[in-house]
Amino acid sequence: MGLSGAANVKIHEYQGKQIFARYGVPIPKGYPAFTVDEAEANAKKLIEETRVPIVVVKAQIHAGGRGKGGGVKLAKSTEQARAVAQSILGMQLITHQTGPDGQKVRRLYVEQGLDIAREFYLGAVIDRDKRRIAFMASTEGGVEIEKVAEEMPEKILTIHIDPAVGLAAYQARKLAYGLGLQNYGKETVAKFTKTLHALHTLFVKEDCSLCEINPLIVTKTGDIVALDAKLNFDDNAEYRHPEWKDLADHDEEDPVELEAKAAGLSYVSLDGNIGCLVNGAGLAMATMDIIKHVGGDQGVAPANFLDVGGGANQEQVTKAFSMILRSPKVKAIFVNIFGGIMKCDVIASGVVAAAKGLGLSVPLVVRLEGTNVDLGRKILNDSGLAIQAASTMADGAAKIVAAVSASA
Ligand code: GDP
Ligand code: MN
After folding, report:
1. Which structural domain, as residue segments, surrounds residue 207?
2. Do 353 and 320 belong to one domain?
3. What is the pLDDT of residues 316-350, one digit of tens each?
4. How many C-beta atoms surround the C-beta of residue 350 within 10 A?
5. Which residue from 229, 199, 195, 226 is spatially nearest to 212, judged by alpha carbons?
6. What's the gap in Å between 268 CA and the centre of ligand 2?
7. b vs e for 297-321, b when ≥16 Cβ sit within 10 Å of the residue's Cβ?
8. One domain for residues 5 and 143
9. Which terminus of the chain has fewer Cβ atoms in its 10 Å neighbourhood, N or C?
C-alpha cells in the first residue's frame, strides 16, 4: 500500500497477454520460458506453427523500455533464438524504469514475429479528477509516452468513459479515425474498435489501475495486434482476486516492502535520509510535507515510511523500527505517532526493544501524542536511549532536520 492508501499489483507482459487473450484482445502467439532450452523449444514450436522463421525473444521484468536496453531481440531461426535467449536470460537489464542497477532477467517470453505496418500507443488509466476511466491513444507508438506527452501533447487523443454508459461506439470511432486507421481499411477500424471494447471490459472486470499497450500495431495484412502488455491492478480490489497471488513475482518486488507486508505493515521506500515511523497514511503525508517544509532546502527528506497502522502490536512495532534501522540511507529517525486506537506505550516499548536489540547509531526524535502518552514517554525516558522528545510535529521536524544537519 502506498501513501495514498492505494498501490498497484504488477504482472509480467506474458501474464498480461494471457489475460488479453481471454477478453479477445488480439496478441501474437507466444510462450513463456524459464530456461534457454525452453526458449529454444518454444521458438521451434512457434516456427512450426506459424511457418514463419521469425521469433522475438523478450525479457520479462516489471519495467518498460526493455527494447532499448537490449532485452527484446529478433531471431530468424531456432538456433538464433537459442543464442539470443542465452544472452538475455540472466542479464542485468537496465532501462529508464529499473534504476541504475537494472533488474536481473529470470523469465523470457518467446513470441511469433509479425510484420509491422505501423506502431501506435494505446493506454487506459483512471483519471481521478474526472472520476472516469480515460483511454489515450497516439500515433507515436513504440516510444516513451511520457516524452510524447511532454513534447507533443496534441499527439495524444483522450476519451473519458461514462461509467453509467460504458464505452460508446462514437468514442471508439473517434479514436480509430484520430489514429488514421481508416487508411488501412474499414476492417482495420472495426478490429480496433472491437479491441477497444474488449480492453474496456477487461479494465473494469479485472480491477485495473493501468493498462498500456505500447505498441499496438497494425500489421501489413491490416490486423490489430497488442505487441506489448502492461497491466497494473488496484490492490484495494485484492480481496476479490485470489488469482493475483499466483501472478506475483517476488523477484521483482522490493524485498523490504515484502518483509513489511508479511509482517502486516505498510512500507514505502523514498529517496531521502530520514526514516519515519508513523501511523496512518494521512499522518505519513503530513510528516513528509513538514519535513520537506522545514528541511527541504537543506537536502533533508524522508528515506522511507513505515506505517504501523491503527492496531499494531509491540512485536510489529519492533519489527517496523528494526527495518528502518537497517536501511543504510537513514541518517536520523523520526517517530511521529498520534495514538488513537494505537497506544503510545506499545509504540514506545517496540521502539525501545528494537533500538536496544540492534543498537541505535543515528539520532532519534520522537513525537508521541494520544492514548497512554504519559506511559509512553516514561518508557522512552527510562530506556537510557538518547532520544529527543518533541512536543509537536513542527518541533519534531525542526529537531530531526537539525540532527541531520549536525551529523552531515
Ligand atoms: P519495451 O521496450 O519494454 O516496451 O518492449 P516492447 O514489447 O514494446 O518491444 C520493444 C520493440 O520491439 C517494439 O516497439 C517493437 O518495435 C519491437 N518488436 C516487438 N515485437 C516485435 C515483433 O513481433 N516484430 C517486430 N518486427 N518487432 C517487434
Ligand atoms: Mn513497449
Report:
1. 1-27+116-250
2. yes
3. 888 888 888 888 889 999 999 988 888 899 989 98
4. 25
5. 229
6. 27
7. eeebbbbbbbbbbeebebebbbbbb
8. yes
9. C
For the chain, percent of residues with pLDDT exceeding 90: 71
Q: Which residue has the cell 498501490?
A: 7
The atom number, within ligand 1, closest to the CA of 28 reads 23
Question: Looking at the DSSP assignment, which residues form a beta bridge with residue 302?
Answer: 274
Active site residues: 121, 212
pLDDT band at 205 (very low <50, low <70, confident <90, very high): very high
Spatial contact of 86 and 43, defined as CB atoms under 8 Å apart:
no
Answer yes or no: do 300 and 337 share one domain: yes
Please choose, from the candidates 342, 286, 341, the residue with its C-alpha nearest in 3D space to the C-alpha of residue 317.
342
- Whether the per-residue pLDDT at 360 is higher than 90: the answer is no
CATH number of the structural domain spanning residue 134: 3.30.470.20
- Give the three-state DSSP class for 24: coil
Q: Which residue has the cell 487506459?
A: 124
Element (H, E) at 226: strand 224-226
185: left (phi over 0), alpha (psi -120 to 50) or beta: left
The closest residue, in CA terms, to atom 14 on ligand 1 is: 142
Domain count, the chain: 3
**pTM attached to this predicted model:** 0.82
Report the pLDDT averaged over residues 247-264: 86
* Minimum CA distance residue for ligand 1 atom 7: 228
- Pocket lining for ligand 1, CB < 6 angstroms: 28, 56, 58, 64-67, 72, 111, 113-114, 116, 119, 142, 214-215, 227-228
- Domain boundary (232, 250, 268) is at 250
Distances (CA, A) of 8 to 209, 215, 288, 304: 7, 22, 21, 18
* Domain match, 107 and 238 both: no
Q: Which of 113, 137, 163 is the last residue of a domain?
A: 113
156 plus 263 within the same structural domain:
no
Residues 125 and 21 in one domain: yes
